[in-house]
Design brief:
Layout lengths: L1 E2 L4 H10 L31 E3 L3 E4 L2 H12 L4 H15 L9 E7 L5 E6 L36 H12 L4 H4 L1 H9 L1 E2 L2 H9 L1 H4 L3 H8 L10 E2 L2 H13 L1 H6 L1 H13 L5 H6 L3 E3 L2 E7 L2 E7 L6 H12 L10 H21 L10 H4 L2 H8 L34 E4 L5 E7 L5 E7 L35 E4 L17 E5 L2 E6 L6 H15 L4 H6 L3 E2 L7 E4 L4 H9 L4 E4 L7 E4 L6 E4 L7 E4 L1
Parallel strand pairs: 18-19
Antiparallel strand pairs: 1-22, 2-21, 3-12, 3-22, 4-5, 4-13, 5-8, 6-7, 9-10, 10-15, 11-14, 12-13, 15-16, 16-20, 17-18, 20-21
Bound molecules: 6-diazenyl-5-OXO-L-norleucine.
Length: 602
């Protein structure tokens, strides 16, 4: 077994040492031509983990091991993904979850694709202005912390559906590693201990969160064991009875009682009515350096797939050199500005809103929008508005006009993992509680609850915790799914599996995922280099380019000279990707050293 594990200290040392990224050639990768990683990032892995059969790349070594264990027991990628997801609910409580939701993108080796949408839903008693007080002011805390922030969780139903659809093993079998980790416990890492310390103010407000995650105030030190007996009991019930326990059984009763006691809105009826969905994936084709590429990605209620395809459509005709080239960074930042303007206007739950997906992802539309970019000067977001998406041959005038825009925000944790099995089945899966530790409330059934209600447009006209602007179509309404940025994506090269990717990071999910695809598909970077490369982000509003701390300083000044406002941020996204070596078929696990990423294969 091969494995990488990265420490926080290494990441900090690395960030301090980096001065810039080396230029990379503009071509698609071939096995014989794998490029060295960008920059000399001490402590970060410089090569992907290589394995011939299967690979799992996640935020946490124990979760990757859980997935690998299932692959080695003969399970397929879906079996392993379900095992990994339940394990993340135990070892990465900030984001891995059974109290939240997610998206799982599946591409089977025979070419079949499915998108499992197990996004949370607003409870039946939710209403458009539920977080707005009598004074007309938004109570931002109420949609972020505590029981009223919680939307109906979808993860357990979604994982069961994925397993029943494509898995080969029983739920009880794939849940074995997660149950073991919850019951026997696992050693708290340095990163986890310091994260719990920083989350103390929120967690200590809720009795069970305080007891389980803060040891009633005594706090965990690195190396100590975290056991979660209530969670273990819940996982055992689910293993035995399936999602029925979570939505209509003992777990549902515990959750509904908690809600009634602590002022939440979710009822037994909301839980019983929750439905995961299978949706058609979004697809787009590109050519680059003599190869044909196909991008398979997330449909609404994710905004990410639409945005990534729109961006790649615009960039198809734009030459890119490297992230050490101001022209390339400028053009991509301008593309990002425009896709986020469209996101703000058009994206919402497709079950209730008419989202112009075909127009937004159309090549002619992209050409028109790209023509508004000045290659030498930054545009102003005040002047950039959402376009009028339309397909080739259909006039722009006949397309639906944009919705009234309002604002929304982002939070700091979610988790993305990738799995490829020996047969070539691939999974890109992103799950979230929204913010780190979600609502910070732990239910009596032992799991943290999401604060996904904050992904709705909580008050038209105001930005959310991620500073995002969103449309009226994303307003709160019973049984609607809040708009997401999660973008699990799979890329094919000449019809064959090539790259499995995705990220956490609120709106920066879209940029981190897009950049990982460009690094692999357009720049031909080695897989780990594609993940290590410094990242940047523009989301239309606020009008500034965010640059990772180690982004080349010369590029920042050159961007400023073109009229871009810039701001440094520590790190952006956590892309746990798997690439396929086109010559050997080897799986190249590239976990993100920005977190405790771990790629494990056999
Ligand atoms: O679904 C979304 O877009 C957000 N709830 C994701 C939040 C997130 O990625 C926070 N993490 N870093």
């Amino acid at each position: 077994m091969l494995a990488h594990r990265f420490c926080k200290v290494c990441a900090v040392l690395f960030a301090a040492l980096i001065s810039g990224a080396a230029p990379v050639a503009v071509r698609a990768q071939a096995a014989t031509e794998l490029h060295p990683p960008a920059g000399s990032r001490d402590g970060w892995p410089q090569q992907a983990v290589r394995a011939a059969h299967g690979m799992v790349a996640t935020d946490e070594a124990l979760a990757s091991r859980a997935g690998l264990e299932i692959l080695q027991r003969g399970g397929n990628a879906v079996d392993a993904a379900v095992a990994t997801s339940f394990a993340l609910a135990v070892v990465e409580p900030a984001a891995g979850n059974i109290g939240g939701g997610g998206f799982m993108l599946v591409r089977l080796a025979d070419g079949r694709t499915t998108f499992f949408d197990y996004r949370e839903m607003a409870p039946g008693k939710a209403s458009r202005d539920m977080y707005i007080g009598a004074d007309g002011k938004l109570d931002q805390q109420a949609s972020a912390v505590g029981m009223r922030a919680v939307a109906v969780p979808g993860t357990v139903a979604g994982l069961e559906l994925a397993l029943k659809t494509y898995g080969t093993m029983k739920l009880a079998a794939v849940m074995t590693p997660a149950i073991r980790l919850a019951e026997d416990g696992f050693p708290v890492s340095e990163r986890f201990a310091s994260e719990l310390q920083s989350q103390r103010p929120g967690l200590q407000r809720f009795a069970l969160s305080r007891r389980i995650f803060l040891k009633d105030g005594a706090m965990f030190r690195a190396g100590e064991t975290l056991r979660q007996p209530e969670l273990a009991a819940t996982l055992k019930r689910i293993a035995k009875l399936g999602a029925a326990d979570f939505y209509r059984g003992e777990t549902a009763r515990l959750l509904a009682d908690d809600m009634a006691r602590l002022g939440g809105l979710i009822t037994l009826e909301d839980l019983a009515n929750y439905q995961p969905k299978t949706r058609e994936v979004l697809r787009a084709k590109y050519s680059s350096d003599g190869h044909s590429w196909e991008v398979i990605t997330a449909p609404p209620p994710s905004s990410g797939g639409v945005a990534v395809i729109e961006a790649l459509n615009m960039l198809q005709a734009i030459p890119l050199k490297s992230w050490n080239d101001v022209e390339s960074v400028h053009m991509v930042a301008e593309v990002m500005r425009r896709i986020f303007a469209d996101r703000a206007a058009y994206l919402a739950d497709p079950d209730f809103a008419s989202v112009p997906v075909a127009g937004l992802t159309d090549a002619c539309y992209a050409k028109e929008v790209a023509a508004t970019i000045d290659p030498r000067h930054a545009s102003s977001s005040k002047e950039i508005r959402a376009g009028t998406p339309h397909a080739c041959g259909i006039s722009a005038e006949s397309a639906t006009p944009p919705q009234t825009m309002v604002s929304l925000g982002e939070g700091p944790h979610t988790t993305h993992f990738s799995v490829v099995d020996a047969a070539g089945n691939a999974i890109a899966c992103t799950t979230t509680l929204n913010n780190s530790y979600g609502s910070h409330v732990t239910s009596s059934a032992g799991f943290l609850l999401n604060n996904e209600m904050d992904d709705f447009t909580t008050q038209p006209g105001l930005p959310n915790g991620f500073n995002l602007i969103q449309s009226e179509a994303n307003a709160i309404a019973p049984r609607h799914r809040p708009l997401s940025s999660m973008t699990p994506t799979i890329v094919l090269r000449d019809g064959k599996l090539s790259f499995v990717t995705g990220s956490p990071g609120g709106p920066t999910i879209i940029s981190a995922t897009l950049l990982s695809i460009l690094n692999w598909m357009r720049f031909g970077m080695e897989a780990q280099a594609a993940i290590n490369a410094p990242r940047f982000h523009h989301q239309w509003l606020p009008d500034r380019v965010l640059l990772e701390r180690d982004f080349p300083t010369g590029i920042e000044s050159a961007l400023n000279a073109r009229g871009h406002e810039t701001q440094r941020i520590n790190r952006m996204g956590t892309v746990n990707a798997i690439a396929i070596d086109p010559a050997t078929g080897d799986r190249l696990g590239a976990a993100d050293p920005r977190h405790d990423g771990s790629a494990q294969g056999y």
